[in-house]
Design a protein that fits this description.
By secondary structure, the protein is α/β, with parallel strands linked by helices. It is built from ten helices and eight strands. The chain starts with a helix and ends in a 5-residue tail after the last helix. Keywords: Signal. InterPro entries: Bact_metal-bind_prot9, ZnuA-like.
């Protein structure tokens, strides 16, 4: 009897140690946040690889299968995934992940957004009236979202609540420790032309001037006239051009070559399976690019 009880106790202990909250993250940045806050108490599956534009994914059977068995979906939000996540959730038939349920989490819902209140008119491009969704490009906002995610995980797994909160606070400290060096590095930076309105959060956080965009409107490919006008408006000034790796090079290259500015291509999201260091190192690359000091 004693041996049987000992075996049962060991089974329960091992089972508890292996128990995880199953998370499906829409992007690798959300996967990083989930791994950072959840630690080994969660398992994480990422739907959008970092070399893809998360605006334009399509709902796939593999997405639905992953969501069907998940306890929590962690999305960027602010309609970034509006073109495919609702369809994937519907196909998954997992009501606990529906918006408004404990199993649905949006990072953008827990931070202040920029660009709120624009017209909901797709003729004006890839607009987001609820606000710019690219909150992953601001480490401070990501740290805030991490705290909110810790509370959501604590609700789903109360036994690990203290661990989740401690992990979130550790991430906050890591971000705060890097901010002074980032701010110093871009001190006096002349400004940047982005391809898309995606790294605006980081530029605003560090007070780097945004001089323009390669796209005439968000999500609309650049025309020759727009590129010529952009070059004309910026002639005689200094700056850099930065595009995300999934954006085409030609328009950004034209602007950079005409102005004699450096051109950088960087990912918007960290690698699959990224941890906090991977994410902060990615931000470090963007900061160096905005300062014009990143090796090309």
């Amino acid at each position: 009897m004693i041996k049987w009880l000992s075996g049962l106790l060991l089974f329960l202990i091992v089972g508890a140690a292996q128990a995880t909250v199953s998370i499906v993250a829409t992007t690798s940045a959300m996967g990083m946040l989930s791994n950072t806050v959840g630690g080994d108490a969660v398992s994480v599956r990422v739907l959008a690889p970092p070399d893809r534009d998360a605006h334009y994914l399509s709902a796939r059977p593999s997405h639905m299968a992953a969501l069907r068995g998940a306890d929590l979906v962690v999305a960027v939000g602010a309609e970034l995934e509006i073109g495919w996540l609702p369809a994937a959730l519907q196909g998954a038939a997992n009501p606990s992940l529906n918006p408004g349920q404990p199993g649905y989490f949006e990072a953008a819902a827990h931070v202040e957004l920029i660009g709120v209140g624009g017209p909901a008119d797709r003729a004006l491009g890839d607009v987001h009236p609820s606000g710019n969704p690219h909150v992953n490009m601001d480490p401070i906002r990501m740290a805030q979202a991490g705290r909110a995610l810790a509370e959501r995980l604590a609700r789903l797994d109360p036994a690990n609540a203290d661990r989740f909160r401690a992990n979130a606070e550790s991430f906050v400290r890591q971000v705060e420790s890097r901010m002074p060096a980032w701010e110093a590095r871009v001190q006096g930076a002349p400004g940047v032309v982005f391809y898309h309105e995606d790294a605006d959060y980081l530029a605003f956080r560090l007070n780097v001037p945004i001089l323009g965009f390669v796209e005439p409107l968000p999500g609309i490919p650049p025309t020759a006239r727009h590129l010529r006008d952009l070059v004309r408006d910026l002639e005689g000034r200094q700056g850099v051009v930065i595009r995300a790796i999934h954006h085409e090079e030609r328009g950004a290259r034209f602007v950079a070559d005409q102005l004699g500015w450096p051109l950088y291509a960087l990912p918007l999201d960290p690698p699959l399976g990224a941890n906090a260091d991977d994410y902060l190192n990615l931000i470090d690359q963007w900061v160096s690019a905005m300062a014009g000091t990143l090796s090309q």
